[in-house]
Every structure is written in C-alpha cells, then in structure tokens.
Amino acid sequence: MYGVSKINIEPSLMMISVQDAEFKGNTMARYLQIFADTGVVVDMISQSAPHGTSMDFSFTASSGDLPLVMKAISAANLDKDAKASPLISVGYSKLNLFGEEMVTSCGVAARALNALAMAGIEVLLITTSDLDISLLVRSENEDAAYEALKKAYEL
C-alpha cells in the first residue's frame, strides 16, 4: 500500500500554460481571475521558479470547457498588462492518489514517478497536498499509468 489506498482517474483534461509572464505579485492572480470570470474551473495550478523578470505557470481544466477557455484567452490577450498569451494543449488525464498516510509517507510521490518512468509514461504535471497526489499524463497512457500505479502500491 505504501501510503496510497485509492487511485482514481479524471479523463478529458486540457492544460493551459502561460510562459514568460511578468514576475510580480499579481500576475498569476490576474490570469486566473480572467478564467474564473469566464466560468472556467481550474485545477492543478503549478508555477515555476522565477527566471529573471518572468515566470511560467500552468493549470488544467476540463476539455468540455474549451469554448469558455477560448473566451478567457481572448480576454487575457486584451488585458494591457498581460504580456504573455496562454497556450492550450488537450488530451490529458489526471490520476489522483489518495491515502490516510499521505503526509507521513514522503516516498509516495517518488514511488509514483518511478513506477510511471519504468512504464515509459511521462508525467507532465504533478501537484501534491496533505490529502492527495495528482499526476497529469497523456490520455493514451491513462490505462497503462493506472495499472503501473496499482502495481507500485499493491492495490
């Protein structure tokens, strides 16, 4: 079990990425607010460490929200303070690992990443919390990733 007691899959996701956004306190908040105002529910928010005066960040949304995402991107492109245009890529699934011992099992994420690497599956985003670990993989790898994780955690 190794700290994980349940794995579930969320299919049909897209990733929205913003590269070389200006690094200042409200940049990511401004972009996320534009998406929220448009009605897009986002998840797996991930930010890179700043590089110089810019930063990169990404988040996921349901592929079913593509019309809303396109509307949000149009609004972001009209924002005079937004220097970077969000990019969309589709065809992802998220695998969520849950377990009561998640907090005390520091090797849980390492085991997941290693199991997927050994199966030849690339992890595009990973987010962690006290309650779960979320891994974004390409949709075509969803079943193989699920099986590799089940095996790794002996579920």
Q: Give the overall form.
A: elongated
Average of per-residue pLDDT values: 91
Poorly predicted ranges:
none
What structural category arises from helix and sheet content? Answer: alpha+beta
Q: Report how far the terminal alpha carbons are from each other.
A: 6 Å
User: What gyration radius follows from the Cα positions, in whole Å?
Assistant: 17 Å
Biggest sheet: strands, sense, closure?
6 strands, antiparallel
Compressed to H and E, one letter per element, the order equals EHEEHEHEEH
- Care to count the β-strands? 6
Helix content class: 25-40%
Counting DSSP H or I runs of 4 or more residues, the number of helices is 4
β-strand amount? 25-35%
Organism: Faecalibacterium longum
Protein name: aspartate kinase
Enzyme class: transferase
Family: Belongs to the aspartokinase family.
Task: Describe the protein's architecture and organization.
The chain has 155 residues and is of the alpha+beta class. 30% of the residues lie in helices and 35% in strands. It is built from four helices and six strands; from the N terminus they run E-H-E-E-H-E-H-E-E-H. The chain has helices at residues 27-38, 66-78, 108-118, 142-152; strands spanning 6-22, 43-47, 54-62, 87-98, 125-128, 132-138. The chain has a six-stranded antiparallel β-sheet with strand order 2-3-1-4-6-5. A hairpin with a 6-residue loop joins strand 2 and strand 3 (54-62). The radius of gyration is 17 Å and the shape is elongated.
